[in-house]
Amino acid sequence: MKKIQVGFLMSYDYKLLKNSIPLVYNEADSIIVALDENLRTWSGEKFEVDESFFLWLKSFDTEKKIRIYRDDFFDSNLNAMENEVKERKMLASQMGIGNWIIQIDSDEYFVNFKKFTEELKLRNNYLNNPEKKQIQIAGYYVNLYKYTDDGILYVSKPRNQKFATNYPGYITGRNTKEQVIYIPNIVIHECLSRSEEEIRTKFTNWGHSHQVNIDEFLDKWRKIDQSNYDEFENLFYLEPEKWKKLNYVEGGSISEISNNLNYRKLMPSKLYILSKNFGQWFKFLLKQNLKT
Which domain of life is it from (predicted)? Predict the structure, then answer.
């Protein structure tokens, strides 16, 4: 017990796992890749997986840490978000209560996973009786918006995202609605830095598909480039004001982009993170007292 258990969700963008898995491999005790046995997305659309990917996975897994977990994750009676939660809970059941349960999507790239796991291990006491003291661990997303000729546009202000928990009572996505502990760790999210066709596929098949006006979003996305990005604001696909502005960084690959980003400038201050954690602690202390 008290292991670093990492789970990945494998779907239509499975090729991105070649970027995300190597970044966590050394620090993970085990890695479970969840794949729908009928190759269906949360919206029920079919996708294909090239056999060469499985050959790559086998050759990469020199320490025999990786297991593919195949099951039926799609229920036609549920919407896409409900199917997402279903899959996440089923995946978590394979990872084991009493361990750190970390779930990562294919397009999420940890900049320093070792540091992230060190922060988790400092809090191993939360694994002793997880059902009674449920928590979530969040890092900070750098959301990639659009590739340009020489680099990439990204959302200027990072947003927090939950990645780990001691008890996977997921309600929406990875959110259990329990106390959050924020830690200073950056994850690059290859969110919209894709072709228009790939963005349509993403928006049609993910958990928030019923909330996105795809055509309206893409109309704005097409107009923005390296020369005019500072003229646009309110860019998020769900609540536009959550992505206020864009910035630009040079780089032709994820590794180059990662090397060129100024993480010191992007990372929220220690005081900000401390205040967020105090706020969460106080909120859930009051909540617990009200229950008793």
Answer: Bacteria
What would the 3-class secondary structure string for 249-288 be?
EECCCHHHHHHHCCHHHHCCCHHHHHHHHHHHHHHHHHHH
DSSP E strands, the chain: 4-10, 30-36, 66-71, 100-105, 108-110, 135-147, 151-155, 159-165, 179-189, 246-250
| pLDDT at residue 207, rounded to an integer | 62
Mean pLDDT (the chain) is: 94
Query: Of residues 260 and 194, which shows the higher confidence score?
Result: 260
Per CATH, the architecture of 4-194+264-291 is what? Alpha-Beta Complex (3.90)
Contact 183, 138 (CB under 8 A): yes
Q: Coil, strand, or helix at residue 121?
A: helix
| Domain boundaries, given as residue ranges, for the chain | 4-194+264-291
Examine the pLDDT at 206 and tell me if it is beyond 80.
Answer: no
Q: Which pLDDT value is given to residue 154?
A: 96
Compute how many other C-beta atoms are within 10 angstroms of the C-beta atom of residue 72.
12
Dist CA 183 CA 190 (whole Å): 21
Write the CA distances from 77 to 16, 83, 86, 154, integer angstroms: 29, 9, 12, 36
Q: Which helix (H) or strand (E) holds 291?
A: helix 270-291
Token pair listed for 110: 């940890």
Amino acid, single-letter form, for residue 177: K
Question: Comparing C-alpha atoms, which of 251, 57, 223 is closest to residue 142?
Answer: 251
Please report which confidence band the pLDDT of residue 209 belongs to, taking 50, 70 and 90 as the band edges.
low
The pair of structure tokens assigned to 58 is: 């086998």
The number of CA neighbours under 13 Å toward the Cβ of 12 is 19
Angle made by CA atoms 230, 233, 239, in degrees to the nearest 5? 155
**pLDDT value of residue 208:** 60
